[in-house]
Each structure stands twice: as structure tokens, then as C-alpha cells.
Design a protein that fits this description.
288 residues, alpha/beta, Rossmann fold, Adenine-specific Methyltransferase, domain 2, 2 domains, 7-stranded mixed sheet
Length: 288
């Protein structure tokens, strides 16, 4: 059953909510399977699930294992998760600013053995950290500072329960994006939202995983798009409007469509530089 009002339950740098309709309109109504192999907060998947007749097979993947554990626990253990988040919310909101900061860093440094506790921690940090960023150091440790919001909503129970129900038959993985695309065939659709080619020295979020995502990885992604094109699978790629990105897809000489769209993005570390920036939507000809 279509949900119609599903939306991401996480804040996410580079999230696609503001470009949702631009992207969704480029995805055919009738597809066999939908893959979002670099899903982040999965805004596009939720948009697909809101359709009257969403595809029977939907696959989510991301290299960020903590993120994908979060999707799995929301899907499979929503009751326990809501209980944990309610406790975290009540204890945090009852503190003054100094106490909230101490509580944030205490929770940031915690290590839990139970998946539901790890995911409650993940959502708590996402709702209370600076700008909703997810960034890790070279050791893979989350290192975003406290956000100091006045009244953050840590538990949105109605949304989490709606998302849990909608994800019931969605496949969730964490690994190299190419590994989940091996079984794609004509009639499937893949939406890629990789870490963007930076538009300035302070705008890069390639610290999203410890491994990083640079120009070599951008070329690898283009090669995977070429492979999908060869087997008749349609794809759509989002990226920044940088000449390098335009060049590697034009250089494939496959007639890929490259369209410009405008989005407001933060272009510095303080989050204060939100200006319109050009992004690219890159696709291969739709297979009928």
C-alpha cells in the first residue's frame, strides 16, 4: 500500500528532499526493481514508496554500516527502538545547555553490544549533532560536535512506525555498491547519489566514511554506469556541477543526458553559506 507521506527520518548532508520531485519525475513509473546503492537518508526510495504502485523489489545499500544497521533496526525492531529513543529524549531535554553538551559527548563515546542500542545512539546523535552531519575520522569514529539546538525532536514515533511498515519488504545491505548490482537486468532502475565532487576546499563531505570518495572512485562509478548501460539497465546519477564530473560522463561517448538543476547547499564548515549551486543529473536513454 502506498504511504504517500513517507519521508527521511534522519537529517543528512546532501540529502535530496529539495530535489525530490526533479529526480522522481525522471524515474519511470513502471520498473521491475529499484536500487539505491548509495542511499544516505534514502529520500528517493521514500519517494518511490509513496507512489501508487511502487516496484515489488526495492534494494537499499550504503557503505556506512552504522547507517544501514539503523534502517534494519527501524524495519525490524521499531517497538524497542522507540522505547530507547524515548528514554534518551526525556533525559536529554531535561538538562540545561551545559548538561546537554555533556550528555551528547558521553553518548558519542559510548559503545554498545546490542544493535537496538547502537541505533538509538545513532539517531540521538543525528538529531543533536551539528548540522546533522555524519563524519568519521580515519579510525572510523564519529567526530561531529554538539549542535546545541533548543528543542530537538529525537523521537518521531509516528514517522518511525510508518517507515518501519513501509520498509517491511525492502532489502537492506551495507557494502560495495557494485556487489548489490550484479543481478540487475533490463527493466530495473538504479539511482546513484555518491559523495559529490567538491565545489570548494571547505565543501567536501568525503569524510562520510573512513575510506573517502575521490576522483578514482568517481571514475569507478562511471565505469559501473557504463556496465549497466551495456546490459540495458537505466540509471540516474546526482553529482555537483563541476567540469570534471561533466567531462568523465561526456567522455564515455555513450550519449548520456547531462542536465543542470539548482539546489541550495551549505558551502562551508559553519553551515552559514547556503547559496544556490548547480548540480548535475546524469542518465542513460530510458529503455522501453
Amino acid at each position: 500500500m502506498p504511504q504517500n507521506d513517507l519521508q527521511p527520518f534522519l537529517k543528512w548532508a546532501g540529502g535530496k528532499r529539495q530535489l525530490l520531485q526533479e529526480i522522481i519525475m525522471r524515474i519511470p513509473e513502471h520498473i521491475d526493481s529499484f536500487y539505491e546503492p548509495m542511499c544516505g537518508a534514502a529520500a528517493i526510495t521514500f519517494g518511490i514508496l509513496n507512489r501508487e504502485n511502487p516496484p515489488k523489489k526495492i534494494v537499499l545499500n550504503d557503505l556506512n554500516s552504522a547507517l544501514m544497521e539503523t534502517f534494519s533496526v527501524v524495519r525490524d525492531q521499531s517497538d524497542l527502538l522507540c522505547d530507547r529513543l524515548r528514554i534518551l529524549e526525556d533525559s536529554y531535554l531535561g538538562l540545561d545547555e551545559s548538561g546537554r553538551s555533556d550528555r551528547y559527548y558521553e553518548e558519542r563515546d559510548m559503545e554498545y553490544s546490542a544493535s537496538v542500542d547502537r541505533v538509538a545512539r545513532f539517531i540521538f546523535l543525528n538529531r543533536t549533532c551539528f548540522n546533522g552531519l555524519y563524519r568519521v575520522n580515519k579510525k572510523g569514529r564519529f567526530n561531529v560536535p554538539h549542535g546545541k539546538y533548543k528543542n530537538p525532536r529525537i523521537l518521531n514515533e509516528s514517522l518511525l512506525r510508518s517507515v518501519s511498515k513501509a520498509l517491511g519488504n525492502v532489502e537492506v545491505y551495507s557494502g560495495d555498491y557494485r556487489s548489490i548490482l550484479k543481478d540487475c537486468h533490463g527493466g530495473d532502475f538504479v539511482y546513484f547519489d555518491p559523495p559529490f565532487e567538491p565545489i570548494s576546499s571547505t565543501s567536501s563531505f568525503t569524510g562520510y566514511t573512513a575510506e573517502g570518495f575521490g576522483r578514482v572512485q568517481q571514475l569507478d562509478l562511471r565505469a559501473e554506469c557504463d556496465r549497466l548501460d551495456d546490459i540495458g539497465v537505466n540509471f540516474l546519477v546526482s553529482n555537483s556541477g563541476q567540469d570534471y564530473i561533466r567531462g568523465i560522463y561526456e567522455g564515455a561517448f555513450r550519449g548520456y543526458t547531462i542536465e543542470e538543476v539548482s539546489a541550495k547547499r551549505s558551502i562551508n564548515a559553519t553551515g552559514s553559506g547556503r547559496i544556490p549551486v548547480t548540480e548535475l543529473l546524469i542518465s542513460n536513454p530510458v529503455t522501453k
